[in-house]
Amino acid sequence: MKDKLNFNQIAFYADMTLCTGCKACMIACKDKNDLDVGVNWRRVVEYTGGEWVQEGNAWRQDIFSHYFSVSCNHCNTPICVESCPTTALCKDENGVVSLDRDKCIGCRYCEWGCPYGAPQYDEKSKLMTKCDFCSDYLEEGRDPACVAACPTRALHFGEFEELKKKLNGTVSLAPLPKYELTDPALIIKPHRNARPVGFKGGEISNPEEVRWNPKIGLW
Amino acid sequence: MESKDWPLVIFTIIVQLAMGMILMCVGFDGYLASKAGMETAQKVMQWVVFLTAPLLIIGLLVSLFHLGHPEKAMKAFYNIRSSWLSREGLLMGILTMTLCFLAILHIFGPVSREVIKPILWTATVMSLVLVFCMSKIYLLRTVPSWNRNTTPIAFYTTTILLGAVAYAVVCVSGVPSAQGRWLTEILSVLAILALFLVGIQSAIISVGLFTGDAESSPKEGIVPGWKKNNRTVVLRIVFAFAGLGFFGVALFTSFLFLVYLAFILVLVSEIAGRFFFYASHERVGI
Fold first, then answer.
1. Are A175 and B285 in contact (CB under 8 A)?
2. Considering CB atoms only, which of B69, B84, B143 is closest to A105?
3. CA B154 to chain centre
4. Count of beta carbons in the 10 Å neighbourhood of residue B201
5. β partners of residue A202
6. What digits encode the pLDDT tens for the residues B125-164?
């Protein structure tokens, strides 16, 4: 059992080389937090792409597909905290971006800005919801539900600076946004087929699972 | 755009219409007083106050429908330090109270213009700052389609355009003896202003469409939401120019009622434009 409540900035580490896309982390998170249909604090993104490329006189395809698990990254410059009009969102002493539901008015402004889709609206309570790093589990000295559930040990957590020193990782990967935008407390060990930030040749193949985006038109 | 954003479309348009009328009223008050007389200027100012106060109240009420918990709306002022939404809400509340105070002054009898004018000037400054705050809400660094210089410009042009056309309606209908050279001159200036603003808006639309942000819209190559809502943009442009056309006809003929039609067309055009603005929301990342 580790000393779980003494972090400057707590962070997740995701090893994409080990992730099989089983979504046990998603299910564990939903189960632990009793999340309603459509609300998924942790999501497993399936990123795919590729095309025909010419090599000399030959054409070959470079199709790729890989998974990575993402939730709130408890950013160092969180746009949700900056924009929240009620101060319902704030960084706590461990660096967790936490939500005070008593203060939340359900304006959904945080949802507009977060590039990781972390704050999500709950239609039943009419309030925002988000990952709190399983703070109650951490207090009990337990691992967050998603970390504990991962069968391949692809998910870890710890002190951000220590993880950075210990593990060779990055967050500059497609389809994640540029690191500088919110300075996420996340480290990823890239899959061999991972593409750099801004890569245009791939797409999220399970958007209905990882995004809640019911756009409407006038006609 | 999501259906939950409709209250925001209505709220921003109504409030910008009201603020535009305040700007026009202050801008043209001196001219009106010198050309049409103090009584006419007073009458127009009274109409503007009586129209803008309820418009701002309606705007505030409509904005509450956007909240999951409207009863907790007062908490939206807690983060003045960093949230533009808080700043907008606070300023909106102060502006509404100011206009309501002016309306109450008018209700309880004739008030000296010397009393009204400084308050109205204060409301004008507040309106200009409020439009800035409203636009800053959308300048999110993670939403490239909104985070452009054209967003505040579009908000200011909408405010002034709606204000100009609404002010024309007030001039035509608010003063029983509305006729003569002063009216023609004011309508001419308003029509030229409206034409200029619609020109700017057309340029903004073109810039948006032809220099779409590739980062936010890798597939479409143009503004996100364009494919689904391109007819909305066409409707916006057609209605704006049709409104200007009717404004012109009203100016060169005696059919002043066409100013009402011009107002309705411009209003629908602006609602369509704001709809498309919200529909173009697409943030980077997941």
1. yes
2. B69
3. 10
4. 22
5. A49
6. 999 999 999 999 999 999 998 999 999 999 999 999 999 9
